Amino acid sequence: MWLALPRLLVLALSSAAALAAVELALRARGSAAFRVWPPGLEAELEPSPEILSGVAGPARIRISSLGFRADERPADVELSILALGGSATECLYLDQDETWPALLQGQLATRLTRRVWIANAGRSGRTTREHALQARHLLAQPPRFERVLVLTGVNDLCAWLASNQERPPEADLARAFDVVPRDLVPGPWWRRTALFELLRGLRTRWQEAPLAQDAPGAVYTTWRAHRGSARTRFDELPDAAAALADYRAALLDLSASCTRHGAELVLVTQPALWAGELAPELEARLWMGGVGDYQRSAGCDYYSSAALARGLARFNAELEAFAREHGLLLLDLARALAGDARCFYDDVHFNEEGARRVATLLADGLAALEER
């Protein structure tokens, strides 16, 4: 046994030296940048038309090397647009080419006769606070964006109604990005090594995609059942002053980042199916607007569709006022699409028809901006 110790020591030292060499080689390639999605991730969902009205066929998801649900950035691109938002921008259950950012990219390229690239950074559940963080870091690193398009408001509304408790600031970076530079990774030192970063990336490619929903969308049946069995349905909203102040502060942060990096900010109001009165078959599509952890737990209280419509109108009005005060372009999807059952498969998420209409409406506004 004692005779084997020198060999074991040599083996250990050789292994350590090899790992160190690999680590140095990987670090020579540079530290990871901020990425909203794990680069290289691919998945395919099979949404059920019975659950998600107006959606058919497979939904293929491809994440680019830059961490966007988008094509790889062309070398000869003439107009780059960063699209920030929650799940209504993400368009998870629509095929990659059917999402409104992809359709908008094609329409703008045709109208402007220029090479246009739209980087879809939408992620489920993200609020304007996360969008502001995303803008702050994404605009400070390559590639450069000339425009930042933001569809926001509904997640701020729902987070406020679900709970008045604030999230700790340190939680925001992890929510805003799936990948951050190594020196910002929390936890033990080895999680900040280039080797761990490489292995994490390879695991992401091999494992099942980390998506918030299941392949056919069956989780919506559960969420709708939770809302249908609500203990109480509130018709009156709490005082929105503090929530709207936080919303405006996040918009101000977002706008400052765009100004600092020379990107023009374009704001988009959030449309929804919510209305004062909904037909029973449309009410049955709803699942949002609960109090507490309503997605995971049955028996929570909920706000009525009428209350949610009024609440969203308050956030959209705040967005409109902010755009007017700061001289920003506002594209008013809410005015054009709110309450149109042809466009939504649930409260706020666009089906195929909705995505087509969103792309056309936004193309009209953005084309006018580019041609002025």
Written description of the protein model:
The protein is an alpha/beta fold and 372 residues long. The protein has one domain: Rossmann fold (3-Layer(aba) Sandwich). Helix content is 43%, strand content 10%. It is built from 13 helices and nine strands. It has helices at residues 5-28, 87-90, 100-112, 128-138, 154-162, 171-176, 194-206, 219-228, 241-260, 280-283, 305-326, 333-337, 352-371; strands spanning 42-45, 59-62, 79-85, 116-120, 147-151, 233-234, 264-268, 302-303, 329-331.
The residue ranges in which pLDDT falls below 50 over 5 or more consecutive positions are 21-28, 202-208
Mean pLDDT: 88
Structural class: alpha/beta
- Indicate how many domains the architecture comprises: 1
Q: Looking across the biggest beta sheet, what order are the strands in?
A: 4-3-5-7-9
The biggest beta sheet is recorded as: 5 strands, parallel
Distance between the termini: 82 Å
Name of the top-level CATH class: Alpha Beta
| CATH third-tier fold name | Rossmann fold
Q: Could you state the CATH homologous superfamily? A: SGNH hydrolase
- Along the chain, the helix and strand elements come as HEEEHHEHEHHHHEHEHEHEHH
Q: Provide the β-strand percentage band.
A: 5-15%
Q: What would you call the shape?
A: globular
Q: Helicity, in percent?
A: 40-55%
* Count of individual helical segments: 13
